[in-house]
Each structure stands twice: as structure tokens, then as C-alpha cells.
Write a structure and sequence with these properties.
binds adenosine monophosphate, six-stranded mixed beta sheet, 26 strands, binds magnesium ion, elongated, alpha/beta, 8 helices
């Protein structure tokens, strides 16, 4: 963990708060992230989406018994002839959950089903498609190998070995894996407490009537949704007017009650000045103009023990900056490990895109796959940072790097999906 303070780090030679590249800002923030502690023991199902706080050690071998990977017959491999057919006598059956009690001797075989315990004496399974039954006399095709189609006990996981490492985010596969070990409870990291509020004199909450020049506050809804998806405990502090005293009170209360404080609005030129002055009093905060679009102004720092993210006010900017900076920071704070960058891949853009060099743009796109497997993407339409419908229509970001200018139709572009499969 860096002992560097935020202000010291922001004095580095190559640090330009007026044109901060996306990757650099992300790297800067990561220097100050230390996973929260705190463990909760929860029933397995409730661990979905949470972060494992301790390694899960397997109390059993998986599979627990040597068993068959095929429907067929089990025998001694030595009784089969590699060069020609071999006939053996069937002496019993071994089904999944109903093992054959005896042992397989020379010249004998046992009918076996997938998952059935391989009986004592047997070391090989021949699949039924390679055998011919004449009553209890079974003839096997040549070319079989000793040991084939047998899953050894502990082959997937040995008793006492690590089944899942701490830091793993629990998905449906992990729920099943843990259940397969007979474990009913998991140690997960306590939920990250995130307080958030919107700033702006023009904002009204849903349920009230709008006056002239007023708008409904939508940022608290998108932020709520994004935080819930990340498994955070949310503290919605409502709308705070652009009033220094009210804002100071809100910041103090938020930082006292939460691990992370997120605000929207109030970080653009003009407004930022007084927020900056106040936060200078309460903590250590840096203000950046990120070389990105949308989402130019951004603040990051510490207020007391809490991490602070000051997102821009425009609704699309809020979502883009959240996904590009806040999301992985919250995962790190929750103890997730590893936290991988969201993958990007290439698709052919079917429309012309307007773009000026100098900033990274996160345009909203609709990705489709043709019957031949090829991927193409088109923009959702108008790309204004206030048009939240563009985020709703989109299933991906089209990421256009700093140096990129206008993009002609038919060009390959970088895309990043908004949804994962699980
Ligand atoms: P600001 O960054 O405060 O200057 O806000 C930039 C733009 O985003 C302005 O048009 C604001 O009205 C709008 N805006 C700010 N906060 C919100 C919000 N919570 N919900 C919807 N729009 C907002
Ligand atoms: Mg504002």
C-alpha cells in the first residue's frame, strides 16, 4: 500500500489535471485503494454476487469415488485384447447411486452407467457403442486402452485442497461448486457501504411537481442500480442544493457513515471551485479534466476514511465515469481479486462516426452478430451526454482512442459489452 498522500501523488511531474488520460486516472486511484475488512457468514445461496473472504477448502474428494465417465461395462483392462475382440461374462450392474457390491475377477465384467462406482478389481470401462451383448456374454471391440473412461476419486479436487480462493466473486457456478462439496455456509466480505447524493438547484425528486427550469434527478437512480448490481449497501442521501453549508453537512454525514461517497454534478468549471474549497477543508481531493467524452470533469479523493468520487452531472457522463473508474475501484475495495479490466474486442462499425482527436470517446453502440458469426456495431444515434436513452438503447460502448478522428463506415472499432453472460 502506498504511503503517498493524494496531494503528493498529484504533484508528480507528468501529472496534468487539465488533460488526464483515462488509464492514468484509473492507475492513480488504484494507488489508494485498500480492501475493507469485515467478514459475514451467510448461507450459500445468499453469497451470490458477494466476495469470498476466506479460501474454501474442500472437505471431500471430488469425485468421491472412482466412477465411470460412460455408459458401458467395467472390467480388467488386461482381459481385453488390443488386436481382436474379447468376450467377458457380465456378473452384475453398477448404476449411479447403486453400486455393485462385489469384485470383478478375470474374464468378468459389470454393466455400468455414467457416474456408477467402478467396482473393485475393474480398472477400465468400455462404452456400450463398442460392445455387443448376447445375454450375459459381452463381446468388446479391439483397440481399448487400460484405464479408459474411469474418473479417479479426487481427480477434480482432492480433499484438503483449495476449491476457491478468497477474493472470488460468487457466481452461479461457485454456488453449485460449494454445494457439491457439502458446504452450507460461506465467509464473505461485508457489504461495502456507499453513500450518494445529487447536487444541483434545478433537481427535483420523483414524486414532486417540477417548477420552471427544474428537472427530475435521474442520476440517483442509475447510481443506485449500478451499486446494487455490484452488491453494495446503498445510502441514498437525496438531492443537495448548491449551497456550501448544506453541501458541507452532506459530505460530513456521508463520509461518517460510508466507505465510499459518490456525488454527481458540481465538478464542472465554476461549480467545482466552491466544492473544491470546501473539500479542501474536509479532506484531500483532486479535480481532473479527464481526456474523455462524455465525462470530462471528475474528482477523486479521501474525506476522512471514505473514498470520494465526484462524478459529472450529465446523466450519460455519470454512467460512463462510473463504469470506467468507480466500478473496478469498488470491486477492489470489496476485496475482489483479481479485478480484471472489462474485455474489449473488435467489430465492424456500419455507420460513420464523428470524432475529434484528443480525447477517448465512449460512444453508445448496438452490437449485433450476423449468421456467419461476424460482429457489427452501429451507434445508438445522437451522442449528447444528457441523452440517457442512448445508454438504455445501447448494449455496448464503442471506444474510440485519443488519437482517432472521424470513423468511416466499414472500419473496425473497439467495443466493450455492457452486460456479462452470468
Ligand atoms: P453539472 O455538472 O452540475 O453542471 O450538471 C451538468 C448537467 O447535468 C446539467 O444540465 C444538469 O442539469 C444535469 N444534471 C446534473 N445532475 C443531474 C441529475 N442528478 N439528474 C439529471 N440531470 C442532472
Ligand atoms: Mg450542477
Amino acid at each position: 500500500m502506498a504511503t503517498l498522500t493524494i496531494t503528493q501523488a498529484s504533484c508528480a511531474d507528468d501529472y496534468d489535471p487539465n488533460s488526464m488520460p483515462v488509464a492514468k486516472a484509473r492507475g492513480f486511484i488504484h494507488q489508494f485503494l485498500e480492501p475493507i475488512g469485515g467478514v459475514a457468514r451467510v448461507p450459500v445461496r445468499s453469497a451470490l454476487g458477494r466476495v469470498l473472504a476466506e479460501d474454501v477448502i474442500s472437505p471431500v474428494n471430488v469425485p468421491s469415488h472412482r466412477n465411470s465417465a460412460m455408459d458401458g461395462w467395467a472390467m480388467r483392462g488386461a482381459d481385453l485384447d488390443p488386436a481382436s475382440e474379447a468376450a467377458l461374462d457380465e456378473i452384475g450392474v453398477s448404476f449411479a447411486g447403486k453400486p455393485f457390491g462385489g469384485a470383478v475377477g478375470k474374464g468378468q465384467c459389470v454393466r455400468i452407467m455414467t457416474g456408477g462406482v467402478v467396482p473393485e478389481g475393474a480398472d477400465t470401462v468400455v462404452m456400450q457403442e463398442r460392445a455387443r451383448a448376447d445375454g450375459k456374454r459381452i463381446t468388446f471391440a479391439p483397440g481399448q486402452k487400460t484405464g479408459q473412461n474411469v474418473r479417479e476419486a479426487g481427480e477434480d479436487l482432492k480433499a484438503g485442497s483449495v476449491a476457491l480462493r478468497r477474493g472470488r466473486i460468487i457466481r452461479p457456478a461457485e454456488l453449485g461448486l460449494v454445494a457439491s462439496l457439502g458446504i452450507g455456509e460461506l465467509a464473505v466480505v461485508r457489504r461495502l457501504r456507499v453513500a450518494f447524493f445529487s447536487t444541483g438547484d434545478e433537481l427535483k425528486s420523483v414524486g414532486s411537481v417540477l417548477g420552471e427550469g427544474e428537472i427530475y434527478d435521474s442520476n440517483r437512480y442509475t447510481i443506485h442500480g449500478m451499486l446494487e448490481r455490484l452488491g453494495c449497501e446503498t445510502i441514498d442521501m437525496g438531492v443537495v442544493r448548491d449551497d456550501p453549508k448544506l453541501l458541507e453537512d452532506a459530505f460530513r454525514a456521508a463520509a461518517k457513515n460510508a466507505d465510499v461517497v459518490i456525488t454527481s454534478g458540481g465538478v464542472s468549471v465554476g461549480e467545482a471551485d466552491f466544492v473544491k474549497a470546501m473539500l479542501g477543508k474536509l479532506g484531500e481531493v483532486v479535480f481532473w479534466k479527464i481526456a474523455m467524452k462524455p465525462g470530462r470533469p471528475l474528482a477523486y479523493g479521501k474525506i476522512g476514511g471514505a473514498h470520494f468520487f465526484g462524478l459529472p452531472g450529465n446523466p450519460v457522463s455519470v454512467m460512463v465515469t462510473f463504469y470506467q473508474f468507480v466500478r473496478d475501484a469498488l470491486l477492489v475495495l470489496q476485496g475482489a481479486n483479481p479485478v480484471e479490466p472489462i474485455p474489449t474486442f473488435r467489430a465492424t462499425c456500419t455507420a460513420k462516426l464523428r470524432k475529434a482527436p484528443g480525447r477517448t470517446e465512449f460512444q453508445r453502440g448496438i452490437l449485433t452478430q450476423a449468421a456467419d458469426g461476424s460482429l457489427s456495431v452501429r451507434p445508438t444515434g445522437e451522442q449528447g451526454s444528457g441523452i440517457l436513452k442512448s445508454m438504455s438503447d445501447a448494449n455496448c460502448f464503442i471506444i474510440l482512442g485519443d488519437a482517432t478522428g472521424n470513423v468511416e463506415a466499414g472500419t473496425s472499432v473497439e467495443v466493450q459489452l455492457l452486460e456479462g453472460i452470468v
